[in-house]
Amino acid sequence: MPETTPSSPFRPPYLPLAGGIALGVVLGVLAGGAGGRDWTSAGVGAAAVALAGALGLAAYLFAGANGENFAFSVLASSMGRMIGSLAVGLVAMFGAGVDARSLWFAILAAGLVALIAETAVAVRTLKAAGKTIGEVRA
C-alpha cells in the first residue's frame, strides 16, 4: 500500500477487502459441502457471510478520508459481518431447516478467511497512515 502524503490522498483498499470476502465465500462453500454434506446448506451459509460482508463494504463508504478511521471501520464492520452471519445462519437453520453441520462449516470457514483479509487490510492501512497497533488508542 503506498504511503499517504499530502499530495496523494488516502485511497481505501476496497478490492482486497472484497476479494478476501469472495475467497472466503468460495472456500466456505467447499468446506461446507465437502465430505458428502449438503451443498445447498453450504451455499446458504456462504451466502450469509457474503450478504453481511457486502453490507460491511457499503459501510466503509462512511469511513472518512484518512487511513486510521478506515482501519477502525474495517474492524467494526468485521464485527458486524460476524453478527450478521450468525443471525442469518440461525434464521436459516431454524426457519428453513437446512443441514446445520454444512451451514455452520460454511459460515465458519468463510468468516475465518474474510476475517484474515480484513485484519491484514486494517494493519496495512494503519502502517500506511504512519501508525502502529500499539500507538492507536480508542
Strand share of the residues? under 5%
The total count of helices amounts to 4
Radius of gyration: 17 Å
H-E order: HHHH
Cα-to-Cα separation, first versus last residue = 24 Å
For the biggest sheet, the summary is: none
Poorly predicted runs of 5 or more residues: none
Tally of DSSP β-strands: 0
DSSP helix fraction:
over 70%
Overall mean pLDDT: 80
Total discrete domains: 1
Structural class: mainly alpha
Assign an overall shape: elongated
Main traits of this protein?
138 residues; mainly alpha; elongated
Structure description:
72% of the residues lie in helices and 0% in strands. The protein has 138 residues and is mostly helical. It has one domain. It starts with 13 loop residues before the first helix and ends in a 10-residue tail after the last helix.
